[in-house]
């Protein structure tokens, strides 16, 4: 494990935070639109902008995973994140499938969680040791 630089530590939240934002952008928007429609309020959302926001946050999560890779040197979370974000982008801009969307989000969540655990273990494991 390499010692995390202050800049690297500043972005520790990016993978998990962007993953959460991607999920909230997707399902949170659906929830708000559904709740408003039950109240008789109609809200038009530009589907392209909505899909773009979801995909942007998924890509930012992959950027966070890449920063994590620089720190812990394990490729698997980054590869999983790329697969998850790729599936999400595919269903947003290619052929929509709720199952593939859910699989993409589960893979992205798994990658972000794995990355977070590796960074926490790496920080705890390097304290008090000389490099």
Characterize the structure shown:
- The chain has 131 residues and is an all-alpha fold.
- 79% of the residues lie in helices and 0% in strands.
- It has 5 helices and no strands.
- The longest helix is centred in the last third of the chain and has 29 residues, at 98-126.
- The chain is elongated.
- The termini are close together.
- The model is unreliable at 124-131 (pLDDT under 50).
> Major β-sheet, in short?
none
Average of the residue pLDDT scores:
90
Instruction: Please state the CA-atom Rg, rounded to the nearest Å.
Output: 17 Å
How many helices in DSSP terms? 5
Number of extended strands = 0
- What proportion strand? under 5%
How far is the N terminus from the C terminus?
Answer: 9 Å
Helix content range: over 70%
Give the SSE order as H and E letters: HHHHH
Could you say which structural class the secondary elements and strand pairing correspond to? mainly alpha
Shape descriptor: elongated
Low-confidence stretches: 124-131
Features:
single chain; 131 residues; mainly alpha; disordered C terminus
Concise overview:
The chain contains 5 helices and no strands.
How is the secondary structure organized here?
Elements: H1 6-10, H2 14-38, H3 47-72, H4 75-93, H5 98-126
Helix pairs in contact: 2-3, 2-5, 3-4, 3-5, 4-5
């Amino acid at each position: 494990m390499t010692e995390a630089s202050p800049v690297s530590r500043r972005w520790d939240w990016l993978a998990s935070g962007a993953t959460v934002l991607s999920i909230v952008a997707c399902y949170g928007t659906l929830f708000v639109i559904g709740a408003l429609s039950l109240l008789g309020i109609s809200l038009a959302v530009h589907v392209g902008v909505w899909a773009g926001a979801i995909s942007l946050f998924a890509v930012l999560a992959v950027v966070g995973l890449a920063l994590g890779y620089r720190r812990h040197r394990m490729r698997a979370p980054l590869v999983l994140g790329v697969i998850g974000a790729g599936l999400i982008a595919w269903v947003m801009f290619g052929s929509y499938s709720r199952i593939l969307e859910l699989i993409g989000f589960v893979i992205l969540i798994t990658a972000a969680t794995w990355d977070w655990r590796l960074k926490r273990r790496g920080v705890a494991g390097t304290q008090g040791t000389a490099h």
